[in-house]
Amino acid sequence: MVSIRQIEANRSNAKRSTGPKTAVGKTRSSRNALRHGLARSIISDPPEVENLAVAIASGLGHPITPDAAMALARSKLALLRIRSLRQAMLGALLNGPLAADLKGLQGLERYDRAALVQQKRTLRLLSFERE
């Protein structure tokens, strides 16, 4: 159970931690997700996604919904981007390991897991559609 003292401490801390206040700080924090582009939800090359979705749909041998094919194509392309970025980061580590590079590699795991979860979820839905 939370005490009154803890609640008051949480409220006072929340008042102080409201994010950046200056224009420079706001600009810098708004660009946080643009470091590597993996956090974006939409792939920037829709024709590539559509082509892969068509190939997936035709290669499975049974009819699937266009949404399922697109979801699978997006997850596959996300995995390809992540693995390509990981390969480049590992290549940079050969020149001399930096703490930032190691931290970046560790951060890729989050995106890799998310893409794999999306892929597994879509494949599971496809197997239900087939039955």
Which class best fits the helix and strand makeup? mainly alpha
Give the helix tally: 5
- How is the biggest beta sheet arranged? none
- Tally the beta strands: 0
Describe what this molecule looks like in 3D.
The protein is 73% helix and 0% strand. It is built from five helices and no strands. The radius of gyration is 21 Å and the shape is extended.
Features:
mainly alpha, 73% helix
Describe the protein's topology.
Elements lengths: L3 H13 L6 H8 L15 H14 L6 H29 L4 H32 L1
Helix pairs in contact: 3-4, 4-5
Summarize the entry for a quick read.
The protein has 131 residues and is mostly helical.
